[in-house]
Design brief:
This is NADH dehydrogenase. By secondary structure, this protein is α/β, with parallel strands linked by helices. It folds into 2 domains: 187 residues, 3-Layer(bba) Sandwich (FAD/NAD(P)-binding domain), CATH 3.50.50; 136 residues, 3-Layer(bba) Sandwich (FAD/NAD(P)-binding domain), CATH 3.50.50.60. It has 10 helices and 25 strands. Helix 1 packs parallel to helix 9. The longest helix has 24 residues. The structure holds flavin-adenine dinucleotide.
């Protein structure tokens, strides 16, 4: 059997690994942590809904057969010519590679944004956000400077809106524990586009605005950030927002290793693949998840979502095995389950299998989607143990 290496243990990498594991096929998976974190729930960790460890599943708890090898290392490059993955702990050769290193924040060239904002890029950075906010609120109790109580989120897409919902649940509790009047807190989300949540049906968006406004949050659309300096957001038109916490959730792009390693990439840095998830630059490399530039039948790139990443990862693994067995590979035709956006722990909004959904049903559907993912990843072993991993049901 050829040597298969997977880089990245996110949604795409873990689904590829789980597929190979189930088939008893040997492979090596390289990741910068020994756990798989649930990226789509990182806003919960940032908002303090649960302890950080609840969002991390030890990789070896999913891949328990001795046919798999886990290498904990930072991937630093892909040498296509020599079929080698370069890592912080040495080179790893491959016959087939599944590349699924995910995404990094996209700052759109806004001056100072990267330097002076926090972002949710992994579990550590999500926990860091919560600690930073806790610390700012503590500082307020010492010096009374109200800037410590101002939180500005940049970007009103899925991540920004979900994070805002968590903070609107968490901050009143934090205020209570520190005897800070809730009215003094300023939580605002700043979005350059004229609307929030473009992936959610237009008629459901007012529900989000209403829910957040009632809880004391502010949503500002059509408001462009020009520059960020330490503790200050400079908006188009000259207005400034001074805030002790600035968090950027406004965009993602693929990990730059792809362009640095000579793959054909789009403007978001994703590497072009054919319908089989095979790199157009090298037939033994399969690219899955947010790193892949895959197009639907109308030539539109698939959006960077966890559900696409999961299906791409599983297909990449399957197609490698089909190719090895000299059988035709299968094209990518993903199933669209819909988009669900949590607005805190109790309420959600979005669609499930084409049906619009909002309120408590939205939150329940989101909880259901967590169980479904755990089931797909590790069957009853993970889903049955769901109280250990982020389940409230
Ligand atoms: C807060 C938040 C909420 C979201 N909500 C949703 C949602 O509700 N629904 C949805 O469909 N999508 C959602 N998304 C998007 C979704 O999380 C991504 O589309 C998905 O994680 C992409 O999967 P992936 O496998 O490509 O990358 P990832 O899941 O990011 O995995 C990449 C893996 O590679 C590792 N890695 C990265 N660089 C290196 C390196 N150099 N060396 C070694 N390892 C490395 C990372 O640690 C990680 O384990 C959300 C994203 C965020 C941040």
């Amino acid at each position: 059997m050829s040597k298969i290496v997977i880089v990245g243990a996110g949604y795409a990498g873990m689904m590829a690994a789980a597929h190979l594991d189930r088939e008893g096929i040997p492979f090596t998976i390289v990741n910068n942590h020994d756990y798989h974190y649930l990226t789509i729930l990182l806003h919960e960790a940032a908002g303090g809904r649960d302890d950080g460890e609840k969002y991390a599943i030890p990789i070896k708890e999913v891949l328990r057969k001795d046919t798999s090898e886990l290498v904990v290392a930072e991937v630093t490059g892909i040498d296509k010519a020599n079929r080698v993955v370069k890592t912080s702990t040495g080179d790893i050769s491959y016959d087939y590679l599944i590349y699924s290193l995910g995404w990094v924040s996209e700052y759109f060239g806004i001056k100072g944004l990267k330097e002076y904002s926090l972002s949710i890029t992994n579990l550590d950075s999500a926990i860091e956000i919560r600690k930073h906010i806790d610390n700012q609120f503590q500082l307020y109790t010492q010096d009374g400077d109200e800037r410590h109580l101002r939180i500005a989120l940049g970007g009103a897409g899925l991540t920004g809106i979900e994070l805002m919902g968590e903070l609107l649940d968490y901050l009143p509790k934090l205020c209570k524990s520190l005897n800070i009047p809730w009215e003094k807190v300023d939580l605002q989300c700043i979005e350059a586009m004229p609307t929030i949540l473009p992936m959610v049906a237009e008629h459901l968006r007012p529900f989000v605005v209403e829910t957040y406004t009632k809880k004391g949050g502010k949503l500002r659309t059509g408001t462009k950030i020009n520059e960020v300096t330490e503790g200050v957001i400079h908006l188009d038109g000259g207005e400034t927002v001074e805030a002790g916490t600035i968090i950027w959730t406004g965009g993602v792009r693929a990990n730059p290793l792809l362009s640095e390693s000579g793959f054909t990439v789009d403007r978001r840095g994703r590497a072009k693949v054919n319908e089989f998830m095979q790199s157009v630059d090298d037939e033994v490399i399969f690219i899955a998840g947010d790193s892949a530039w895959a197009e639907d039948a109308n030539g539109r790139p698939y959006p960077p979502t966890a559900q696409n990443a999961e299906q791409m990862g599983a297909l990449a693994a399957k197609n490698i095995l089909l190719r090895e067995r000299r059988r035709p590979m299968e094209p990518f035709h993903p199933r669209d389950w819909g988009t669900l956006c949590s607005l805190g722990a109790e309420v959600g909004v979005g669609s499930f299998m084409g049906v619009p959904i909002k309120g408590v049903m939205g939150a329940l559907a989101k909880e259901g989607s967590k169980a479904k993912y755990l089931w797909e990843l590790g069957g009853m072993r993970l889903a049955g143990n769901r109280s250990k991993y982020v389940m409230k049901l």
